[in-house]
Amino acid sequence: MRVALAGLLAFALAAHSADAVKPLEIKITARRFTFTPNEITVPKGQKVRLLLTALDVNHGFAMDAFKIRTKIEAGAEDPTVVEITPDKEGEYEFYCAVFCGGGHGGMKGKLIVK
Question: What is the secondary structure of 19-37 as a DSSP string?
Fold first, then answer.
């Protein structure tokens, strides 16, 4: 009986702590040839959920330091969602990974982890 109660208590505590640690949600919009915002600061160890939308044409979102590469569909009903938990302080570049025109090479941003 004690083992069952201890297991139930552990399960309840784990479920409560999982609910308490909600990710920091950040909305990022992509349009030729910029991300808004193009600089994001987050605390080290914080789970982050990026909600990505494209306002004009299809774009990409890549962050090599976190092995992320995804497409952002223009006109999509729901945002493209990327989740990370940065565990090292530093500055990490993100960029458009789908060719979107002449200024594509400059379509970059920065994630700052403190």
Answer: HHSPPEEEEEEEETTEEES
The predicted-structure confidence for 40-84, as pLDDT tens digits, reads as follows 999 999 999 999 999 999 999 999 999 999 999 999 999 999 999
Separation CA 52–CA 28 (nearest Å) = 5
Instruction: Confirm or reject CATH 1.20.120.450 for domain 23-113, answering yes or no.
Output: no
CA distance 66 to 77: 26
**75: which DSSP letter?**
T
Q: What are the extents of the domains in the chain? A: 23-113
pTM attached to this predicted model: 0.81
